[in-house]
Specification:
Six copies of one chain form a homohexamer.
Chain A: E1 3-5, H1 13-19, H2 24-30, E2 42-43, E3 49-59, H3 65-73, E4 78-84, H4 95-103, E5 109-115, H5 118-124, E6 128-133, E7 150-152, E8 155-157, E9 162-166, E10 169-173, H6 178-200, H7 205-208, H8 212-217, E11 221-223
Parallel strand pairs in A: 3-4, 4-5, 5-6
Antiparallel strand pairs in A: 2-6, 3-9, 7-8, 9-10
Helix pairs in contact in A: 1-6, 2-6
């Protein structure tokens, strides 16, 4: 009953690659604070930053069969996004699968489960964001859907949406929003650069952002003695 | 209804700086195993060690407004200590705020919540101890108390108490105890150096600490076969 | 009522040392996916890999007394394996104990609890797998069993079983199985090398492992449009 | 920037009400083991079972403003489904809001956060599935989306999808699948009744489900002595 | 080095008893959303509500000795509040200690650790809020402070502060604030009764609280079609 | 490669049934505080108490096949003890399996994973201790060992060891120790009855257990003013 969807759309790689210039926090802000995957997904090494098209994959608990199915659908510039159908921290993925993905141009892995061979993956420079590191092996008995929309770590991800991931975590940008988010990210970063200079010179955020009146309105009160 | 207390006392920086020579474990022992913040606070990079005066700040969940208020009260040698009024792992703090704090002489951040821009914070050498890394942004709607006594990660922290933080975690030293704890830390470390030499030479802790009789009294029994 | 068992058997060091050539994931697979300790045990630094004979030790919560007892029973090539009698994340172990263990030839520590002095332990190159880093000190009031069979992080470990630990985690190999597992590990690694070359050349796992028929039997279906 | 969508479609109440005859486990099986919300959502009292149309609502952390917005869009037979935009366990909901929802025909609440007044909610017979019970109050500063598709506790929920919830947890049935799932649930339950009678009479599942050959093929081996 | 403080002040029992008429959520609101203990403290049976003077007690991990010390200081109307000096979920407390406390007029237990004999405690009607139920026994080797200020489940509690606890959790009211909080609680409850009647009649919170303009200002937008 | 061991020894039912008169806390104490399963195993209803012979079973993650195998080996008076080979919270067990177990005289289930149909299991009076309630179904692809020694929730359990479970949790008594533990439990309970009477009369534990001298030796100090 598992489904594999071929020939799904992807976001053009020039847009994807341009998004990779911006960090996850910037992109998350640029799209109104949406699209963030849960913070329990952590990179296996740091620093790191990638962007790519989501190649989505569901796996049964303790069963990595559909990852092998997904490899065949990979295109250069993809990032594999794996979610288990129920919570699992087994080591679904290791350096052999990474070798195979690299051969097909895949840029990294995002998985709401465990991975293993992390020393090898680090040596190879194959980036992974996972919720666990575990040597626990998996079976190949129950295939899952590949290239269908999934929920991964609390976020809704469709094939060909853009995944950006760095030391801060992972964010998904909807395919149809990618260009707009790219523009908004650039605007945000330009704006921040001006602020950075002023803050570095000692200017207070209270003044830079003109917060004092609003704070007073909200009841902020200054006193000179410690409360008893 | 939020309160900002100006002109709170601080611990003299010579005492603070001298405490920075000792690790968190040593200081925690030197003050009778008190003052430790919960172990879920972890540094964003290692190795690291700092000491400073606590600049305390409460924040609403998902709202970092009072951090901006706190910056104005910062003095060189402070460490910002932030606690949310209910559990939250959002990314309250990033490199712009760090830039601002550095401009005011603040030495680091301890936060029982999340931070973002950790690659930049690491590059800047701005040390942070947090319970999470998360790109999730925060709003500025509800100010919280600044420079009042707080509970952060299970420890009671008052403005001007000394914060020492390293790879092992974070400890608070009460302002009025700082000199005594400094002396006790030095004594402890001197004592340990002598033990280290003897243990390195192969002497047993059982003999060095004269434990054998007490162990026998407590019922320790030696046998030569494995139990069935 | 605590028991210390002297003169327990150990696995010959040539077998132990040969097992150290293989990673935890490989050995775990080579013994039918058994013997893995829970994934919450993480190394304090990476990369790292060791193997040794289990020197087992039970500790009371917040009480590290029996670790001192265990040191006397250590032999070169041992790995200390510590489990608390109820869940605890205190810092049972630091650099003084590590200094003592190194003097007796112990290769590392596996502990289902906390450790401290992790900056020093890292500098010394003393490897530790723990469930927490915590500066919280422990008392010496209640001795626990030493060199008896224990459950550590969900695995049954007997004195003299082989412990292998690396970036992926920790696995225990039963003393009587050590030679067979060594042979199976070598066979597995040889087999994987051939596969690695083919996967790196772009061959699909679907073909390499001849999965296509079985997948069809299990109901995998390919379509060309995304599901609504 | 928050969006409220009026006049969304709903599943006909006769189908919804018919689904309420079946438990969450049955419905989850009847739709190929999809649609389950995470198991950390637990009912505040037991036994309980409801079904209704999803009335969806996003809330900021520590901010329940959009729940008030959602009430206006409620129709009889709805179940309110609330998800925070970042993890939060505050008490977003109490008996005043429940009173208001009851007045508008809402049958219960599913919330991936905390609730309070659980004694009153229990007395009222207003069913709630939540991840926490907490008296912590929330503010009204940042509205969230209402009646847009959301991810709640790991499941994708759209307005007007059917929510079924009982002692086992919560499942969502897609609006367009509701009739088919209803039929499949009935078929499944009929089938189980026959099995129940045979199992109660002592027949073995091994025989009832004809498992013995497949088990032998998969390597199951019977022995008469315990392994050493 | 443990300290027992005798003759600490308490809050007058008439104020304490009057506070018991209000739930934890009401009191928490009445004192500006402060004083709540963490939501992981849950009652062992429901429904339940008590108020009493805090009798504070620190315990070592796995060691309940100081609870015995605390009993001697108990006065009628007290609630025992116990915090471990490092995280522990052992069963510190059972029906024998409850029997002793009842004999001295203590009304219940709040403990950021585990309890056992919960069937007996339930039969006795002795209320407990704990973070765990565990049969794991504790030793008597290391006394802790009694009747000193403590941090329990994230809240700062001093001897003689008022503890109110019910199905929603536990809140502490500062001794010097008790009368004012009592008055504010009454005012809040009176105010809510009027709202309850209007909400039950179907009036919307949007109108009752006059939220529509502010929501529009904050960017809430209504549309009639679902977003793509 | 899974193994099923037939004709394992069991503890005589008269001893098992006599142990059921004592609670888990008492038995755990009577055998020197050993044998307790982790506290995250909780009963699905309360009050409850059972004792029985362990019928052990390993299951793959998300796969309950070997439970069906275990039923055939059940004998009246058994308690089924199930452990997954890696952490899993799926609903491995429901009312159909319970119906089958009841038909074979099995008294209850202990499972370090999830169960479903808890409303039905409660109505049937079939007791279960689990780490989760989840409707998530499981597959039947990978058999596990049955009636071999296992680690369940941190405890080592062999077929025919005695399982006692109640509101406090679950404890295992080794088959060869069962009679001695029964005697020790009776002695402990007799002893406690005498203490209960004295404590109920207001006698202090400090006196009853003659703790005052030892406390003074350990540094307990009484003062009459609160510390600053």
């Amino acid at each position: 009953m598992a489904l594999v969807v071929r020939n799904t759309e992807r976001t053009p790689l020039d847009v994807v690659d341009a998004l990779a210039h911006y960090g996850v926090a910037t992109i998350h802000e640029a799209q109104d604070r949406t699209g963030l995957l849960a913070a329990h997904l952590r990179p296996i090494y740091r620093p790191v930053r990638i962007a790519g098209n989501a190649l989505t994959c569901e796996v049964a608990p303790g069963d990595n069969w559909s990852i092998h199915v997904a490899v065949e659908l990979a295109r250069p510039g993809d990032v594999l996004v794996v979610t288990p159908t129920s919570p699992c921290s087994d080591g679904y993925f290791g350096e052999l699968l990474a070798t195979s993905l690299v051969a097909h141009g895949v840029r990294g892995l995002v998985i709401d489960a465990g991975v293993r061979d992390v020393a090898d993956l680090t040596s190879m420079g194959f980036p992974v964001w996972s919720k666990a590191v575990s040597a626990q092996g998996t079976v190949k008995e129950t295939p899952g859907n590949v290239q269908t929309p999934i929920v991964c770590a609390g976020a809704y991800v469709r094939p060909g949406d853009v995944i950006v991931a760095d030391d801060d975590g992972v964010v998904v940008v909807r395919r149809e929003d990618a260009s707009a988010v790219l523009a908004a990210s650039k605007a945000r970063e330009d704006n921040e650069q001006a602020k950075r200079v002023r803050l570095a010179a000692g200017e207070l955020g209270l003044d830079l952002y003109a917060m004092r009146d609003k704070l007073a309105t909200r009841g902020l009160r200054y006193v000179d003695e410690a409360p008893s």
